[in-house]
Amino acid sequence: MPEAPRQDSRTDSRTAPTDEELRTLDAHWRAANYLAAGQIYLLANPLLTEPLRPEHIKPRLLGHWGTSPGLNLVHTHLNRVIKNRGLDALCVWGPGHGGPSVLANSWLEGSYSEKYPDASRDAQGMELLMRQFSFPGGVPSHVAPEVPGSIHEGGELGYSLAHAYGAALDNPDLLVACVIGDGEAETGPLAGSWHANKFLDPVHDGAVLPILHLNGYKIANPTVLSRIPEEELDALLRGYGHEPIHVIGDDPAIVHRAMAEAMDTALDRIAAAQHAAREQGATERPRWPVIVLRTPKGWTGPAEVDGEPVEGTWRAHQVPLSGVRDNPEHLRQLESWLRSYRPEELFDAEGRPVADVLACVPEGTGRLGATPYANGGLLVRDLPIPSLDDFAVPVDKPGTTMHEPTRVLGDLLARIMRDTAVRRDFRLVGPDETASNRLQAVYAASGKAWQAGTLPVDEHLDRHGRVMEVLSEHLCQGWLEGYLLTGRHGLFSCYEAFVHIVDSMVNQHIKWLRTSRRLPWRAPIASLNYLLTSHVWRQDHNGFSHQDPGFVDHVLNKSPEVVRVYLPPDANTLLSVADHALRSRDYVNVIVAGKQPCFDWLSMDEARVHCARGAGIWEWAGTEDGAEPDVVLACAGDVPTQETLAAAHLLRRYLPELTVRVVNVVDLARLLPQGEHPHGMSDFEYDGLFTTDKPVIFAYHGYPWLIHRLAYRRTGHQHLHVRGYKEAGTTTTPFDMVVRNDLDRYRLVMDVIDRVPGLAVRATAVRQRMADARTRHHAWIREHGTDLPEVAEWSWNA
């Protein structure tokens, strides 16, 4: 492979580190270790200017020491290569409970003090740094949004490598290091993430350097990858497409030299691979390096406590000395441990890091805690979203024409993809479903990212593509999160039932956004946008296993200032909602829309107004004509909207004297009280829309109890009756799905008759007609395998 790196300014001739350089690297590492341990234990006396006393110790000892020395080693050596090579770099810290380390290093380099001036780089600031860690009113024990340079909350393990690759996409000059804990390496999402190198374009993307940190133990058990033979581990990593570089030891002097050489070797190989692809036209997929770092868990901490081995065992995972305030021997051991780092050599009398400690630290935005890539809102640009009128479907009369909403949206996404071809800051991700979800128009603007082998039968594969398809929802989610957090835009398209696979991941992202909003130095990033299609009501062909609309319930449980849920009923409302979502910042937007042909209800202008309201009366569908309604037919979702309008049609025909109001809800959060969600309606608005005393028959896309939960405080809640999905599904006809779940037009008419006072007696014949229609439906589909003609051929204007 060619030796030339990607830029002359990044050249390193791989000269072995000098003894002086290794000495200063060790000084930095010892300083970081001292600060990390101090954060777990110390409330005062940060420089040990007096003997430790119990009152210097925190009353509750929280944090994780075991991984911290290894993370400090990685941070120290990343500093060296960033400074020597002039790199733009970011690090994703997979063992997120190693928060003390990343906090310590950001304080040493000065980026922490820049964001939090009270934590100045002196004794007073050091005391604050230590006191606030895992302390009421302070900072969490994980690498959280509060930590400069972070894009990854590692409290839940498994997502680091996917985030790293997402950050590297379309950032050609960025090195993304990713420390993977050996416990984390046992998770499914992390195992799937090793395949991300088959999607990394060495021309347009940056590089990811995985650093697999094998310290041997999880909380209480050994880790798999640390216990298999080295040749088996190497075979595994080579099978994933990596070339391993090993760093092993417990002698700091030996490990520092080996780590420096490993970093140089890895970065030279990365530079050569990028140079070959960018300058020489090489198309063979590179075998990227991976560093395997084996150091003891709790390295440099207490070797033994109370007669039990600690360093190098699972006992070092959290707090090695737990009885420091009450046990004089533990207190003595803690002081001996802290003094072993020789803090008097590392900090001057005022508590400032000395020159040796800072010798390896880069300047300005080269510091890992100051890189703008970890504060993506500083880099994000508005998407060039064209006028929706260019893509809108014409609607002269409601319910006359039909379109596939997601196909219409696909044309808009293709234009955005085309208009971002040069700037490369928009990606579409999904698990092998872009065409299935009718979004294939994007292939005309960009193919599917692919670096593995190809065959003549393959379609739309492109080494430089920005459509990401892999059959792992975890990987799709992680890629997109990393991409957004580093300042770009995207959309995640997924089958509705299977987006649940990332329930836990979206939890973490929502928490990240909520916390980030409270940090003035974190600039808003582009929203995480989901398009959920192939939804519950049109999974009649795949059957029960593919029918689950509950992701909406899951999301609406989360921080209301962050989450938004939209159910556009037709193509033009989908365009309007998507336009809003793609322009928004710091949200998680969930859009549920069908891919099958459905009726066009609103013109583009009407759709804009209706979506801006979030919920509104469709006057053309009701029979109010200025009179007070006898009943409100409400709906949310495309199929429920069609069934509601079909029910309104039947009521016009059979009960023309009944005054009916039709309300459509696009934005589910509108149903919440104003004080519980930014989009919530006041009681005045809600009562004006739904009335306080009239029956409301609500046809809803998902589980009916969600609507009750959103509206349970409203005055008219006792009059609210919701129909929705109730786990009654199979492989059947489209209309049979709604019948099985009592969401069909005939059942809705029966509900009106049952709940409007006086109708139960005078409309008995109509109710029987509706029940008979359901009976005819059951017989018809079993004989013909298709829906009743009166259903299949129905339209609003028929």
Automatic annotation (TrEMBL):
It comes from the Bacteria. Residues 1-21 are annotated as: Disordered. Belongs to the XFP family. Residues 18-378 form the Xylulose 5-phosphate/Fructose 6-phosphate phosphoketolase N-terminal domain. Gene3D superfamilies: 3.40.50.920, 3.40.50.970. Keywords: Lyase, Thiamine pyrophosphate. Residues 595-796 form the Xylulose 5-phosphate/Fructose 6-phosphate phosphoketolase C-terminal domain. This is Probable phosphoketolase. Pfam families: XFP (PF03894), XFP_C (PF09363), XFP_N (PF09364). InterPro entries: Phosphoketolase, THDP-binding, Transketo_C/PFOR_II, Xul5P/Fru6P_PKetolase, Xul5P/Fru6P_PKetolase_C, Xul5P/Fru6P_PKetolase_CS, Xul5P/Fru6P_PKetolase_N, Xul5P/Fru6P_PKetolase_ThDP_BS. Residues 1-13 have a biased composition (Basic and acidic residues). The lineage of its organism: Bacteria, Bacillati, Actinomycetota, Actinomycetes, Kitasatosporales. Its cofactor is thiamine diphosphate.
